[in-house]
Specification:
With 342 residues, this protein is of the alpha/beta class. The protein has ten helices and eight strands. It starts with 27 loop residues before the first strand and ends with a helix. 53% of the residues are buried. The chain binds manganese (II) ion (MN). The site of manganese (II) ion (MN) has 8 residues, from loops.
Length: 342
Amino acid sequence: MTAFDPNAASGEESGVFGLPHSPHEAAVVLVPVPFEATVSYGGGASEGPSAILRASRQVDLYDVEVGKPYEAGIAMLDDPADVRAWDLAARTAAAHVLARGGTHGDPALVASAASVDAYMERMNGWVRSTVDLLLSRGKIVGTIGGDHSVSFGAIEAHARRHPGLGLLHVDAHADLREAYEGFAWSHASILHNVMARIPAVSKLVQVGIRDLCEEEADQIASSGGRIQSYFDAELAEARFGGETWAAQVQRMIEPLPHDVYVTFDIDGLDPALCPHTGTKVPGGLSFQMATSLIAALARSGRRIVGFDLTEVVPAKDGSEWDENVGARILYKLIGWTLRSRA
Ligand SMILES: [Mn+2]
């Protein structure tokens, strides 16, 4: 620890962001969840945590906005072999269902989908108990996907400790489907499951949404204000008419309670910043729009209690762009989370 030089290049065997901290020493602990069993379109999200770990070593530790978040100590847990094994088993079962675009009531496919959901419940339980244990030790916890389904257990663990918790959700997708392609725990149903099964979550604010089905629009409309979605197209139109992003950010933060968890799907950003993520949609937030949103949340006096980052997919050619962006969003999330609690 004493020999650590924050200005030097980091070695290949160093920890996340090139840091020397063990999870025991670190104030911020990152939980990698290499799981993508229900990915419906492009795959690769299970490689997100290891790719972000590699790319994080290139991020400069001094940050113009948040200063020196590394001083608090940041560590990432080792890649969990159990979760990887469940992911592979679940993906094999899911492939049969996905190839047919759903179960269509076929008993064999219904059984496959049930086995996928059973693996997902195991994964949910693992994430919940891992995050819960870290929270009980006073850690700030960031969960790194994997596809967006990995957020459920993390949100559940945080909501238990912070009744009335608010969620700030950056995503191209509303993720409010009751089930998708036959899977109750699909990545496309994550926020539906959160809102239906975790009553301690008082408010969901969605930002950047630009892909939505009618069922999801109905869910938002019938939520009695518990779900507030700020659609990408409407925000862009208002900006073209002269409203500033700063004003929009204030508008979006205003409904959130004091304690907020940030669930950040990388595809909420402009796809130029995440070209290999599974389900890209044109439009979305620039990097600075996203970081200024997180900054404004912290500056508003609210407390960021935890966060996740999902759907980062590395390119197969080693070009390291998606994970570079992911690692930088991650460092900002860590920095502003620490700031919000200082
Ligand atoms: Mn998404």
